[in-house]
Amino acid sequence: MLGYKRIVIAQNERGLHLYDRRLAAILEPGIYRWLDPLNRHEVQRYDLTVAEFDHPWLDVLLKADAGLIERHFQVIETGDRQVGLIHKNGRLDGVLPPATRRVYWRGPVEVRVELIDIATDYALSRAHAALLARPSAVLAKSLSGYIQVAEIEDNHVGLLLVDGELARTLPPGLHAFWRFNRAVKVESVDLRLQTLEVSGQEILTKDKVSLRVNLSAVYRIADPVKARAELGNVGDYLYRTLQFGLRQTIGTRTLDVLLGDKDELDRAVWDYAVEKVRPHGLELETVGLKDVILPGEMKDILNQVVQAEKVAQANVIRRREETAATRSLLNTAKLMEENPLLLRLKELEALEKVVDKVERLTVFGGLDGVLRDTVRIELPAH
C-alpha cells in the first residue's frame, strides 16, 4: 500500500528500529508495518549468529534506554589492568585486551567473559597456557602479539625479563605471559656440561721455545642468574680466562718440565681458571691439554736427543748382559775345578755335541780312548 513500509525480521535476526534517526525499539522476529510517507522509519538488521554488536553510534545507543539495552545486549568492559577470556557456547574464542569494551547480542550464542587481573600476576595459569600457547588457527588470529610463550627444555632454566629487568627464573615446562602494558622476554640457559676448545695458542716457554698448544675444557653454568648479571658472554669470558691461564702456566716452565709432566700442566691451568670463573656462577669440571706442537727444527733436535738416549740405554743393557754371561761362566769354571765328576759330565756333553756334527767317527782304544783323546779338558795346575 502506498506510503506503508513492511519489514520482516527472521528468526535468527534482530532489527534496530530508528525513528527520525533515533533508537525507537529493537525488533524481534516478526512482520512490522508503518505508515511512512516521509521515510522517517529505518530498520537495520543484525544476524544473531554473529554475537558481536558494533555500530558507529554505539556510545549513544548504549545510553538511549538502559532497560532496552540490558534486555537485548551484554556489555563487557575490561579495566586498564584486566584481560578478558571470551567463551562462546562454552569454548574459548578470543581475548579481550585491557581497557576494551565489547557488546554482544543476547541470543543463540551464549557469551561468557572471564576477567583476569594482570596488575601483578601476568603469568597465565597452567590451564590457560595449555589453551593459548598452542591455539587453533581461528583463535591464533585474535591472539597476535598478546602472549609471550616460552618452552623451557629439561636441564635448562629460563630467565624471565620484564621491561628489561630480571623478574625470576623459570623451571622446565611450558610458560606463557601477558604482554599488555609491559615488554616480556624469556632467555633459556643450558645447565648441562658443555665443552670449549682453546686452539692454536702460540706461547713461549721459560727457556724461549715456541709452542702451539690446543686445550679442551668442560664446564657448566651453576648459577645462571649470577652468570647473566656479571658476564656479557659466558663462552668468551671462559675462553679468555683459559687462554691467560695457559700462557701463565707455560711461560713459567721449561720445555723439559712441560713435556715431562703433562698432568701437572693440566692441574695448573685448572687451578688458575677455576678461581677466576667460580665467583661468576661457572663451574669448571675438567681441563686437558690436547696437543703440544713444536716447531720443525725443535722436533729434529728432540728426535736426536731421544735417539741418543735410546742408544745409550741399549748399550747399558748389552753391557749388563755380557757381564752377567761372563759371571756365569766364571761360576761354572769354579764348580768344575772343585768337582771332578762335574768336569767329566761336561766332557760327555761336549762329546754329544761333536757326534751330532759328524757323519762317521773312527774310534781307537775303545771308550776310554774316545773320552781321553777326543774331548779333553785340562785343569789348571794348583
Structure description:
It is a single chain. The protein has 382 residues and is an alpha+beta fold. It is built from eleven helices and 19 strands. Strands 3-2-5 form a three-stranded antiparallel beta sheet, with no helix packed on it. Strands 6-10-7 form a three-stranded antiparallel beta sheet. Helix 6 crosses helix 8 (262-277). The longest helix is centred in the last third of the chain and has 43 residues, at 296-338. The radius of gyration is 51 Å and the shape is rod-shaped. The relative contact order is 0.06. The mean pLDDT is 83.
CATH architecture of the domain at 194-294: 2-Layer Sandwich
- How many whole angstroms does the radius of gyration measure? 51 Å
Instruction: Identify the overall geometry.
Output: rod-shaped
Strand content: 25-35%
- The portion of residues assigned to helices is 25-40%
Secondary-structure element pattern, one letter each: EEEEEEHHEEEEEHHEEEEEEEHHHHEHHH
Biggest sheet, spatial arrangement of strands: 3-2-5
Query: How many E strands?
Result: 19
Count of discrete alpha- or pi-helical segments spanning 4 or more residues: 11
Question: CATH homologous superfamily of the domain at 194-294?
Answer: Band 7 domain
| Distance N to C terminus | 171 Å
Topology-level CATH name of the domain at 194-294: Tetrahydropterin Synthase, Chain A
Task: Assign the structural class, choosing from mainly alpha, mainly beta, alpha/beta, alpha+beta, or little secondary structure.
Answer: alpha+beta
What's the overall average pLDDT, rounded? 83
Instruction: Give a quick account of the main beta sheet: strands, pairing sense, barrel closure.
Output: 3 strands, antiparallel
